[in-house]
Amino acid sequence: MRAGFDVNTPRGQETVSHTAANGTVEFAIRSIPFPGHEEIYSKRDIEKERELAEIDFYNGKTNDELDIVLIPKTYSTSPGLNVHAVKLPAGMSRVSYAAAHATKSHSSDDKIIAKYKQTIPTHFTYSPSILGYYHLSRFLDTGHVEPAIVRTMDVAAHKPLADLGKAKAIGSNNRKQWTELRALDDAHSNPALYTDDGKQLCGALQANPAGEESYPHLSDLGGAAAFAASSEFAKVTNSNPLKLTCKDANGKLNQAAVQQIVQIRDLSDMVLLDFIMSQADRFSGNMHSEKIYLWVENGVLKNKTKKSDPAKAAEQLKQIPPEAVLVDRMIMKDNDAGLISGNSAKTYHLLEKISHMDSKTYNRLLDLQKELLKPEVGQWFQTELLFTPADFKTVKDNVDQAVGILTARKDKGLFLDANVSAALGVEDKQEQEVETKPEPDNVPSTPLAVITGSVGRWENGARNLQADVETVQCLLEAAAQKLQAPQLDPKGVDGKIVRQFAKSNTVAAIEAFQSHSNISIDGLIEPGSQTWQALLQAAGET
Asked: Which of 435, 442, 470, 531 could cysteine-pair with 495, CB 3.0–4.6 Å?
């Protein structure tokens, strides 16, 4: 069990304070990035983390002026608070709305934008697991896990919501857990879920994916044994190399084949991450998916998540290339049952049965094993993700075991062929999420582009945060077009710079721009530097 959360211990890269009705100051803490690997977090990750940190539990509103309302989750065994965004009827309080809507069903105008989970010592609910899944998924570049932050909550404000959860609980298991949590609130002394002073709970606040669905067929299976025997997992364990015809002679994508390679990659990624995090509760309905469009554009794999609202989906389809295919992509949510009770992937030997894995995932796993040897990484897990020393040892030991299992089978039954880009015959870059362009008459004014750290040659000290790299790549593309200088084109926007500068198209474009602008060539762009100012001007940003 971890020591109580000390609100005075320095942690996080950013902390936003919120004040409860009784004056208690709550903290929303964005964890420091994985040590030495700030580049693994996307621009969207950073934006989502900041949105989570800004959520005021009691008087908050979203950017589009919807009211924030906390409603207890009453329809599963694990108690927590759903964070709803809704337009409150005139004269109705948040508490009254919550009391009337503490059910699984809710109107289309009522969106669950986030979930708050605290640890339950005797149940499959452990908030550090939520944080661990988020950050490890980014390091491994695997799975689709929504951003999460550390969040404290006033005990006095939580008690009436726990009472409501207990009163509205659907089923004896849910009621039992809410009853236990409410009793813990009265004592407010258990260090697993309260701050040192006993005034606040400490848990994880995680973004809720929009448009998620139960994963077809797999979500209906009962237990790990049923999953292991499923036809879907059989494709992952098939002992023959993958031979999928993902494109026809004319280059048109084959939807069924693309869906199969995506599913194989998703399932092998899920098994690996669950093995590392000692997940005990994946196969009891906790498998979800979302619909995404996939297509190839200029040699790069692009994707766009399908809108869940029918009207918006119809409008979105007008902007999707006709050659795109629609597939199910797994979402890894409900990750709170890690590190506390059992390891389904290990018990049922699921990792040993895998025959197909993405080569990138395999290589990142080897990198992770090395990183976990560093003392500063172990300390980061404990300070930033609230792991105990025993939690970190479990993850480290699981990674060592995973490496041992997979390396022993590489080329002897394990094929590193579940790479979607390779299957489609395109450049192996991270799939690019395409942002929907606004209508021409409704284009919002955009602020001047900014970077928070240096971008370019690693050996010259560049930080290469993914969001900053994406910004620079976009500006270089714009400059190449405006100046009619193709040598300035970074050849894609993926937020990444390879460490061998001779192979980096982005570094080559930076140096070409410096040469074009008569600036000393060092392959580096720093905030406020001469190169940065010149690039803004060349791209039309000033």
From this structure: 470
**What string of DSSP letters covers 290-319?**
EEEEEEEETTEEEEEEPPSSHHHHHHHHTT
* Three-class SS of 46-58: HHHHHHHHCCCCC
Residue 316 buriedness (CB in 10 A; 0-12 / 13-18 / 19+):
middle
**Angle value at C-alpha 505, between 499 and 510, nearest 5 degrees:** 95
Question: Rounded to 5 degrees, what are φ and ψ at 343?
Answer: -150, 95
Q: What residues have CB less than 8 Å from 481, skipping those under 6 apart?
A: none
pLDDT at 32 over 90: yes
What is the C-alpha to C-alpha distance for residues 267 and 262, in angstroms, rounded to an integer? 9
The answer to whether the CB of 276 falls within 8 A of the CB of 430 is: no
User: For residues 200 and 183, what is the distance between their CA atoms, to the nearest angstrom?
Assistant: 14
Q: Encode pLDDT of 338-383 as tens digits.
A: 998 889 999 999 999 999 999 999 999 999 999 999 999 999 999 9
The secondary structure element, H or E, covering residue 270 is helix 255-276
Q: Can you give the C-alpha Rg of the chain in angstroms? A: 24
Contacts of 16 (CB under 8 A, 6+ apart): 27, 28, 53, 54
- Where b means 16+ CB within 10 Å and e means fewer, 272-300 reads bbbbbbbbbbbbbbbbbbbbbbbbbeeeb
Sign of the CA dihedral running 420, 426, 431, 434: negative
Lookup result for tokens 């060092």: 522
> What pLDDT, in 10s, does the model give residues 372-414?
999 999 999 999 999 999 999 999 999 999 999 999 999 889 9
Q: Is the pLDDT of residue 441 over 50?
A: no
Q: Which long-range contacts (CB under 8 A, 24 or more apart) does 530-537 make?
A: 532/451, 535/472, 535/475, 535/476, 535/479, 536/448, 536/449, 536/475
Q: How far is Cα 250 from Cα 201, in angstroms, rounded to an integer?
A: 58
pTM attached to this predicted model: 0.81
**Which strand (E) or helix (H) includes residue 69?**
strand 67-72
Rounded distance between C-alpha atoms, residue 414 and residue 337, angstroms: 28
DSSP 8-state code for residue 104? S
Residue 401 to residue 394: CA distance in whole angstroms: 10
Distance, in Å, from the CA atom of 514 to the CA atom of 494, rounded to the nearest integer, reads 21
Partners of residue 254 on adjacent β-strands: none
Instruction: Give residue 6's pLDDT band: very low, low, confident or very high (50, 70, 90).
Output: confident
- Distance between CA 529 and CA 428 in Å, rounded? 32
| Contact in structure between 517 and 538 (CB atoms under 8 Å) | yes
Structure tokens at 347: 């018990």
3-state secondary structure 480-529: HHHCCCHHHCCCCCCCCCCCCHHHCHHHHHHHHHHHHCCCCCCCEECCCC
Q: Which residue has the tokens 């090395």?
A: 370
Instruction: Kindly report the length of the chain.
Output: 542
Give the per-residue pLDDT at 444: 35
At 433, the pLDDT band (50, 70, 90 cuts) reads low
b vs e for 193-223, b when ≥16 Cβ sit within 10 Å of the residue's Cβ? bbbbeebbbbbbbbbebeebeebeebeebee
